[in-house]
Amino acid sequence: MRVALFVTCLVDQYFPKVAEAVVDLLAMKGVTVAFPARQTCCGQPAFNNGYTAEARTVGKTLVQAFDGFTHVVTPSGSCAGMIRHYYPELFAGTPDHEAATALAAKTYEFTEFVTHVLGDPDFGAIFPHRAVYHTGCHGARLLGLRDEPLELLAKVKELDLVPLPFAQDCCGFGGTFAVKFANLSVAMATEKARNVTETGANVLVGTDVGCLMNIGGVLRRQDSPIRVLHLAELLHEGTRR
Amino acid sequence: MASKAEFLANITRRLGRSGPASVPNRGSINAGPAEHDMSAGDLAARFAEEAERVGSKVVMCDSLDAVHDALTAIIGTLPPDRVASCSPSVLDGWGLDRVDGSIEWLTAASEAFRERMPASEVGVTGADVAIADTGTLVLTADADRPRSLSLLPRVHVALIREEQIVAHMAEAIQRVRVNGSLPSAVQFMTGPSRSADIENDLSIGVHGPAEVHILVLRS
Amino acid sequence: MSSASNGHMTDRVDVALADVALGGAVKFTTDRLRGRKAEASEALGDWQEWREAGRSIRAHTVANLDYYVDQFTTNATAAGSTVHFASDGVEAVAAIRQIVREKAAKLVIKSKSMVTEEIHLNAAFEADGLECVETDLGEYILQLAKEPPSHIIVPCIHKRRSEIAALFSAEAGREIAQDTVSLTAFARQKLRETFIAADIGITGCNFALADTGSIVLFSNEGNGRMTTTLPKTHVVVMGMERLLPTFEDLDIFAKLLPRSATGQKITSYMTVLTGPRRDCEVDGPDDVHIVILDNGRSNQLGDPEFQEILNCIRCGACLNVCPVYRHVGGHAYGNVYPGPIGAVLAPLLRPDDPAAAELPYASSLCGACAEACPVKIPLHDMLVRLRARNVARGNGKPEEQIAFTGFAKLFGSASLYGPMMQLARLGQKLTVGNGRRPQWFMNLFGPAGAWAKGRDLPTSQGASFRERWAKRGGHRNGK
Fold first, then answer.
1. In whole angstroms, what separates CA C295 from the centre of its chain?
2. Is the Cβ of A135 closer than 8 Å to some Cβ of chain C?
3. Whole-angstrom Cα distance, residue B121 to residue C283?
4. Which of B2, C30, C149, C332 is deepest in the core (most CB within 10 A)?
């Protein structure tokens, strides 16, 4: 099977190891990954601020880059949510509408692809640490992915996954919200970081690097020893022992 | 001030219609799931359980004498110079004059009802229908049954017969409808008056009754 | 408050964040409310199907609102009520003032009603020198404190019991203890006298039934019943979209509304009122006046993006789950309706108010509101659409327009994006780094400086993924 990777701009620029983990993990399942280089960003920063024309210009890079692929996999619930939930509306009445709607239908968040398309959540990973899982809002609410990440984590041997209190609350990232309402966003992230810390976990794992860099930003500022990992990174590390 | 015609015409225009709407087709309405089936169980027991869950006190009575005894016990807990109010039909229908000879019954038929009623310590009413699913009493108003009987006294006692209990609200709504038109007031009452406005701490008896007693006469 | 005119939302948010007691009180209560809602909806079973049923009834009603307003008016009039139509708040207030004059009323009582807040009725009465007393315990507390409600269901959610005891003690002229029983007993005794003396009772309306001309009120304290039983005149202020087609349709909303609002299986009192008291009845009002209010609502009809906002049943569930509301409370919104519903309603009802236009930005777009909504209003989508509407009307901030024009240019082409981002990462390394620099220095870097106030910035892991991929000839391991 051959799929296209939508790396997302944030992973591309700041967290390339997440994408490398995804490529290696998919290879373990016999999936070949292509990386069409015309892609940039889903356009969500502009879209969420109401700049729809600008969002279309940027989103068009994806519509074109992934033309001809049957599956597009991305390590972000938020970016997948943008494409799946909003592209049909965003491109309505434009010549790209059909292609954008097709892209929406073939885009999968990483854990979703593994559970629903591959149907095999076990990577044989061993990860002997206590971890908490942060639920990204867009993955859960726009895509309905609540159990899928947990199915992957359940297969990890020696992992001590502890529940995160107030897991349903947003971490306060929200894209430009994080800088427009910076104090509020920091307050939300600080509360989330406290909830994470109080579990006694030494690893925070999630499926969206936006949330992770937000909560992780607070943890780093507090010089916390808690490691912050994308779920693909955790699995990858667990298979390289 | 807008006229009715202008007001409605504006809505019609906004909705993109050329003229007033004809009777709407309810085809787009989804009926909702089926209610839990209660036909097999004891409705009165379920009613009592639900009513007590929200703070009402329920006494199951096997005879009219047992109803009187239960009412005497409730009245016995009240201050000595009490006045009890009730509707004339409840006084007659339930033989309340046979209860505790010392109590003065003020009925809605009395001239003094409006002035003295607010000072009543207890109001005794019947109910049109009761809902097992939620422990709810449904009372309609009419000449015989003033709204304030179940509202102003600190203690509300409702006397109901087991056959008045239905499973769900939908059935209660059906029973309340009389020839399509409704009485001036239909109260669905569930438990005593409550508030959680002060630091979300539950307090009972804010403006309405602080105690609700329901005496169920078994059939 | 006439509008969100009290400075900017960002400033009000910062003031609220600095108030630790406020944050504690709001989080405490919203946690309990949403926890109870979850339990109550779980216990009902088939919650998603009930939601869909509720949504479909509301959508049908709004789509046929002309028919149902007409039918309601005919039936209410037949039952003896007088119906008035108000295109805006000014007309509604004028209609109510006229009733007050006709009745020569000296004392008016109100049960909790957000729509009367919307039309600023209390301020009008105050200007007229008319005594008007709020009878809901929470609203009574706020009237003594001279504050607007900060939640649509629990108006004084932000008040601690020590503050309440101080207000009651000042009112009583003696010390009132801080325990809930003492506080409630004082309010009960004080308000009981008012109920009996009042000339007019004013309420909102949770639902209005088209087929019977009835008004439906949900309450727990019983003040709604008092207000509609004791005064000789009852005035209802009703948003024009409050209708349900039939009495039978009320069944579903008797399930959805209390569960969503407070986690109760059913409200203590659901009161269905049809016309004034009949001639033979000893209590109940002699006259019922129903003021049907538009005030910007009809502008949403026929708008595919926003018509659904009229499905709202004012339960407050979206407030209780909103992370922004939880942190800053209702007053930070500077609007009668706070939280996600307020952030959508305010700019829709007042499209020319720049302060209202700010509110849709006060959201991380987490979608918790839409998930909680018992009638499935896509609130987070509406927040985004309102931002787009702002931009389309040319009301975007100039610096933002420049930034997103640049974003489209740069991110619209991978051949520009790649090298420019490489440069940007280098720039970050040479300047702000992880953001732990003096604040004056960080302030030079706009968004990065704002981010770094309480958080480290992410730093690059060396080359970008695309650089690595290209270097290895389009393979993960350079094969």
1. 16
2. no
3. 18
4. C332
Report pLDDT for C6: 65
Which amino acid is present at C220?
N
For position C316, what pLDDT does the model report?
96
Q: Describe the strand order of the beta sheet including C131-134 as a list of residue ranges.
A: C82-86, C287-293, C233-239, C200-203, C107-110, C131-134
pLDDT at B109: 82
Predicted pLDDT at B2:
86
CA dist A219 and A205 (Å) reads 13
**Alpha helices, H only, C235-311:** 250-262
Q: What is the predicted pLDDT for the residue at C188?
A: 92
Spans in chain A with pLDDT lower than 50: none
Write the pLDDT tens digit of every residue in B198-217: 988 899 999 999 999 999 99
Q: How far apart are CA C89 and CA C118, in angstroms?
A: 7
Widest Cα–Cα separation across chain A: 52
Q: Which residues of B touch C230 (CB under 8 A)?
A: 148
Q: Provide long-range contacts, Cβ within 8 A and 24+ apart, for A165-168.
A: A165/A195, A165/A198, A165/A199, A166/A191, A166/A192, A166/A195, A167/A133, A167/A134, A167/A135, A168/A135, A168/C321, A168/C368
Percent of chain B with pLDDT strictly greater than 70? 98
Contacts of A178 in chain C (CB under 8 A): 364, 450-451
What average pLDDT does this structure show over C204-231?
97
Nearest-by-CA chain C residue for A213: C458
**CA-based radius of gyration for chain A:** 17
Copy the structure tokens of residue B132. Answer: 């097992």
Contacts of C413 in chain A (CB under 8 A): 40, 61
Query: Bridge partners of B136?
Result: B131
Please report the sign of the dihedral spanned by the C-alpha atoms of residue C298, residue C302, residue C306, residue C307: positive
CA dist B188 and C430 (Å) reads 70
- The tally of CA atoms less than 13 A away on the side-chain side of residue C213 is 24
Lowest mean pLDDT across A85-99, B67-81, C234-248: B67-81
Rounded Cα distance, C364 and A175, in Å: 7
Of A103-117, B174-188, C117-131, C388-402, which gets the smallest average pLDDT?
B174-188
Least confident of A64-78, C258-272, C278-292, C461-475: C461-475
Rounded distance, CA C39 to CA B115, Å?
A: 45
- Inspect the interface and report whether the beta carbons of C366 and A49 lie closer than 8 Å: no
Predicted pLDDT at C478? 43
* Burial degree of A179 (CB within 10 A; 0-12, 13-18, 19+): middle
Best interface-test mutation with B: which of C29, C48, C50, C66 has the largest number of B CBs within 10 A?
C66
Q: Do B166 and B130 contact (CB within 8 A), yes or no?
A: yes
Q: Is A93 exposed, middle or buried (0-12, 13-18, 19+ CB in 10 A)?
A: exposed
CB contact under 8 A, C70 and B26: no
- Nearest CA to C291 out of C335, C350, C234, C253 is that of C234
Give the residue-averaged pLDDT of B30-52. Answer: 92
CA atoms of B14 and C13, how far apart (whole Å): 36
The phi, psi pair for B192, rounded to 5°, reads: -75, 170
Q: Given pLDDT bands bounded at 50, 70 and 90, which one contains residue B101?
A: low
* Contact partners, residue C168, CB within 8 Å, separation at least 6: C144, C176, C183, C186, C187
